[in-house]
Amino acid sequence: MKILIYGINYSPELTGIGKYTGEMGSWLAQDGQQVDVITTMPYYPEWSVHDSHVGKWWFTEQIDGANVHRCPFYVPKTVTSAKRILHEFSFMLSSLFFWIPVFFGKRYDVVICLSPPFHLGLIPVFYSKLRRVPLWCHIQDLQIDMAKDLGMIKNKRFLDIMFRVEAFILKNCTVVSTISEGMVLKVTHKKVVQGDCVLFPNWVDGEQIKPLPRSQSLRTELGLSGSDKVMLYSGSLGEKQGLDLIIEAARAFVTQPEVKFLIVGSGGGKDKLEALVAHYGLTNVRFHPLQPYKKLAALLATADVHLVLQKKSASDLVLPSKLTGILAAGGCALVSALPETTLHTVIDRYKMGLLIEPESVEALVEGIRAALSSDLTVYRRNARQYAENNLDKQVTLSRFMGRLRQFADSGYPLSSVKKPREVEPSEVV
């Protein structure tokens, strides 16, 4: 198959959408498909173009057999809603350099568009219509819903315009998929998708990310002792998580020097968190950059408890991508989630972690104390077992490839793709 992937994030980004899109592209190429990718320079979650790509313009490189076409674009030093919009549109405009030849070149069998940004789908929709190519839109975050609910964009007229653009794109996609059952329901309730929204969950390589003994963790490298009780947050430091709660909670443990809070990652909210730590004069909070993928299992083994936090308004609009690694590493997660959301339901049903109320310092402190005084063995064992049974990379991507082939073979428009089978509760993460 000749496959075109279009998205703003791609390998070698270590976290978020770029990690999964990059792994998908590599897997498809190594499966024997011809894969082209139109994307940006790697920049996330640091919001700074990686040193390896600084100063480059339009160029093509190969990553694991995929042809990756890179485009220059605007990356703001300080991320605001307005600057983020400019950032995303700069990529759309820049990507025309590679899209124009695509419109007149050899026809692809299928185009896969990654959202967010939601409006990236506009160019693929026009290509799909003109060349009669099936278009698969995969939604990792419900970007507009989140911007509205988090108060990031308050102009009602502008929000209405964005929702109309989103509806136009989704209505003209052949297939729409997303990563959790809760998000499937939210997309379905928009009533603009041609058929059923397909569940395409994130995955984890259980051979690479697995439980390790403490002796093989990064404790020594990160200046921690074996007796320290480590609360770890690793990933993007953005708005949707509400990470200032970690700093506020750390104040409650200043008289317990063995309890350490480790924040590993980058993002637009890092400066604010560091300033808050300095303001309170805390010595029990430490910041470290994202670790290479080859060290991820060792990093996850460093933690006694993993912090998975998100705001109430982000419930079922996003699903923390870091959770797959935590489960595969046999970690116990302290998760803030509202009842009846996908995240809450799965954690509770399979007893893979401790659940707390979102956006509550008191609940976070009580949750940490409960974790410190409990035997977490059962949670860790259940987490690893769940990952082995439900999040396997090979199984997930093989199933996706099967649907993708059926999808492409059905022609355009897609009239004969079978309705997806009912999703079992064990598959919702």
* Largest sheet, spatial ordering of strands: 3-4-2-1-5-6-7-8
By secondary-structure content and strand pairing, the structural class works out as: alpha/beta
Mean pLDDT: 90
Radius of gyration: 21 Å
Q: Ends: how far apart?
A: 28 Å
The fraction of residues in strands falls at 15-25%
CATH secondary-structure class of the largest domain = Alpha Beta
Sheet of most strands: 8 strands, mixed
* CATH topology descriptor of the largest domain: Rossmann fold
Alpha plus pi helix count: 14
Pfam families: Glyco_trans_4_4 (PF13579), Glycos_transf_1 (PF00534)
Protein name: WcaI family glycosyltransferase
InterPro entries: Glyco_trans_1, Glyco_trans_4-like_N, Glycosyltransferase_grp1
Quick recap:
With 429 residues, the chain is an alpha/beta fold. The chain folds into two domains: 2-203 and 392-418, Glycogen Phosphorylase B (Rossmann fold, 3-Layer(aba) Sandwich), CATH 3.40.50; 214-389, Glycogen Phosphorylase B (Rossmann fold).
Structural description of this entry:
By secondary structure, the chain is α/β, with parallel strands linked by helices. It folds into two domains: 2-203 and 392-418, Rossmann fold; 214-389, Glycogen Phosphorylase B (Rossmann fold). It is built from 14 helices and 14 strands. The strands form two sheets. The chain has an eight-stranded mixed sheet. A six-stranded parallel sheet has the order 11-10-9-12-13-14, sandwiched between helices. Strand 3 (59-63) and strand 4 (66-71) form a beta hairpin. Helix 2 packs parallel to helix 3, helix 7 (244-250) packs across helix 12 and helix 10 (322-328) crosses helix 13. The longest helix has 24 residues, at 81-104. The two termini are 28 Å apart.
